[in-house]
Amino acid sequence: MEIAGKVMFGIALNYGVHYASMALHNTWCIPHSFTDLLKGLVATASPVCSTLMTIGQTTQNAYGALVTTSAVAIITSGLKNV
Fold first, then answer.
1. Which listed residue, 39, 40, 44, 59, has the most CB atoms within 10 A of its CB?
2. What tens digit of pLDDT does each residue of 46-69 get?
């Protein structure tokens, strides 16, 4: 049960970081009006926007790996009991 708690905490933490970085990227880096579009020509290539996108991509991959690994662990532990 302790392992399940740690897995759920890891998934929740990873998803939280992913959500926060993508929300900030959406707010700061994605143009929402024509004026923002003109400003975005410079701001989109900023280190902050690039870093937020990298964090989002990394946490997306990690989230997939966590879910897949957890599913495999649950299935294999169920098979051991059969």
1. 59
2. 788 889 999 999 999 988 888 888
Contacts of 30 (CB under 8 A, 6+ apart): 40
Q: Which domain holds residue 70?
A: 2-80
For the full predicted model, state whether its pTM sits above 0.85.
Answer: no
In a 13 Å sphere around the CA of 34, the CA atoms on its Cβ side amount to 0
b/e code 9-26 from CB counts within 10 Å (16+ = b):
eeeeebbebbeebbebbe
Structural domain count, the chain = 1
Q: Are 52 and 24 in contact (CB under 8 A)?
A: yes
